[in-house]
Each structure stands twice: as structure tokens, then as C-alpha cells.
Amino acid sequence: MARKAKRKVIVLMGGWSVESEVSLSSGKGCAKALRQAGYEVTPFELTRDLPALLASLEKTGAEVVFNALHGRFGEDGCIQGLLDMVGIPYTHSGRLASALAMDKEISRRLFETADLPLAEGRVLLRAGFNPADEPERPYVVKPLNEGSSVGVTLVFEDDKGSPLTGGDWPHGDRVLVERFIPGREIQVAVMGERALGAIEIVTTRRFYDYVAKYTPGQSTHLMPAPIHAEAYAEVMDLAKRAHDCLGCRGVSRVDLRYDDTAGEPGQLYLLEVNTQPGMTPTSLVPEIAADAGISFEELVSWMVENAQCDD
Predict the structure, then answer these.
(1) Is 253 a residue of the active site?
(2) Alpha helices, DSSP H, located in the chain
(3) Is the dihedral of CA 174, 178, 184, 188 positive or negative?
(4) Which of 14, 27, 197, 278 is catalytic?
């Protein structure tokens, strides 16, 4: 894949979100692959000392920032805005698309206007919530601004209690509540102008949560997703439409549910778009890319060569 030899790249990783450890794993792997591809790489573990970041960008003469951050401040448009201000191109989506994708309430509104299929849902306030108004079970409770399934909780018929009605909840008072969609977990990698492929995730846990995502052996990946051909074509189309709806660029991962409980082809439901998908040894985007004939080294090189700032 064409690239500039010895181009100077800073790989941002770490941060202070709940996903900092995942980011470190992503960043280290990406830095290694970029070195192997011939880039001059400087890893940088981000803290709240932003002047240190600016000093490192200037000292190294960085031409591109590879953004391997996950979660708040790295995935929600904040770091993207800073890089836009200093005029250094960065990988993945720009500040607006990043902010929109991270806000589940706003992104749902945009998906609705684009006629993308969603599970029935609404935003509720936990403070003063009346248990008599609890949604019909089963349902899913999600923080509005977290990634990697952090805080996502399923509530089934025989569960005691609910995140809506008490207990510790460190993810803010406003939450998204959606009808639980039975069936299968399908995810699609989008790279530039095309959807690369769809993968199915099977886990023995209640759902594809943080542990299932990042702990080896907790999930099985089926690539390509063994679903009906019509459903496969539809999921690829929906993923690209969702990516475009938010104005994403570079690489993203689109998460969906596929309800085939009444037979195939079943019904697809869009869950969310991840503008900073994981790049760890258990992550899905590198696996999908490999199935499409794109090595990890080629994938991260493409991301660097297609990095840009927002206007």
C-alpha cells in the first residue's frame, strides 16, 4: 500500500477514560505495525497535561497523529478539536462526527431521520424515576456517552432490581433505554467508501459486554457472519449508510442486532457507530480487514495516509 517512507507519526494512547487500558493495548499494537511499515513512530501516553502533548508534537515534527484513544475526551470530538486547532491531520473521524457518534441520544435522532432501523427506545432520568413506569422487560439500559459497552445493562423478566430504580450508577443521570432485541450480534467494519465485511460474535455471557470484548476466550468470532445472503447484503448497506449519516471518515465499526428468531432472512436493527474501534489482539476491525485481504500493517498505513483535519 502506497505511503511516504519515514513519515513522522505520533500514536496517541491511554488517556483517563474507563477505556484507557484498552487504548494502551490498541496504541502499542498500532505503533509496532507502523514501525514495521516504515514510519517514524513516537508513542505518546496522553494525560491531562495537554501542554506536554503540544510540546511533543512540536519536538518530534509530527506530520500525522494516529488516534488510538478510546472513550471520553479521545473519542468524542475533544482531542479532535485540539488537533484541528493546531492543524495536524489525525486518523478516524473529525470532531463533529466523533461527538455525534458518542452521544447516543443525538445519533439516534439522526439515524431516525435517515430511516435506519432502530430498536424502540427513549432517554429517561434516573432521579425520581417511578418504578411503576418501568419499561416492559426485557430491555437494555445504556449510558449516553460511553463506549466498549461500559455500563450497558440488560434487564430480563426474572432479574431483581434495575439500574433505573436504584443502586450505584456512575454514568450520569440520563440514560438510554431500548427494547432488547433477541437474536444475533453482527458488526461491520467500514473503511473509507466501502463496508469491508460483517462478523458475528457469539459469547457465553449474557451479551457482548466489556469482558467478552477484551478477554481472550470469552467470545467466538464467525467471519464472515453466517447469515442469509439477503441479510448480509442489507447489513453491509446499513453500516455504510450509518457511517455516512454521521459524517464519519476513515475506519469505523457499526454494531447491529439481527433478529432471526422467526426465521431467515430476519430483521436488522442498528445499535451504534464506533468511530474509534478497538485495534487490540481480540478486536474485530483487524479481523474483518484480514478476511478482506488487508493486513494489519496495511490497515494502519491506510489510516495514516488518509488522515486529515476538519476545516
Answers:
(1) yes
(2) 20-36, 50-60, 78-86, 95-102, 104-113, 210-214, 229-245, 284-291, 296-305
(3) negative
(4) 278
Per-residue pLDDT tens, the chain, 311 aa: give them: 444 457 899 999 999 988 899 899 999 999 999 999 999 999 999 999 999 999 999 999 999 999 999 988 999 999 999 999 999 999 999 999 999 999 999 999 999 999 999 999 999 888 778 888 888 999 999 988 776 566 788 988 888 878 787 666 677 778 899 999 999 999 999 999 999 999 999 987 665 555 555 556 667 999 999 999 999 999 999 999 999 999 999 999 999 999 999 999 999 999 999 999 999 877 899 999 999 999 999 999 999 999 999 87
Q: Is 298 noted as a catalytic residue in this protein?
A: no
Domains belonging to the chain, first-starting first, are: 8-91+299-305 (3.40.50.20), 101-118+182-275 (3.30.470.20), 121-179 (3.30.1490)
Active site residue: 14, 253, 266, 287, which one? 253
**Is residue 278 flagged as an active site residue?**
yes
**Considering 26, 274, 283, 301, which one is annotated as catalytic?**
274
CA distance 27 to 76: 18
Catalytic entry in 17, 23, 145, 148: 148
Annotation says 74 is catalytic: no
Active site residue 272: yes
214 among known catalytic residues? yes
Helix-, strand-, coil-residue percentages of the chain, each rounded to 5:
30, 25, 45
252: annotated active-site residue: no
| SS3 of residue 18 by DSSP | coil
* Catalytic, out of 214, 232, 258, 269: 214
Q: Are 74 and 12 in contact (CB under 8 A)?
A: yes
Identify whether 232 is a catalytic site residue. no
pTM of the predicted model, to two decimals? 0.90
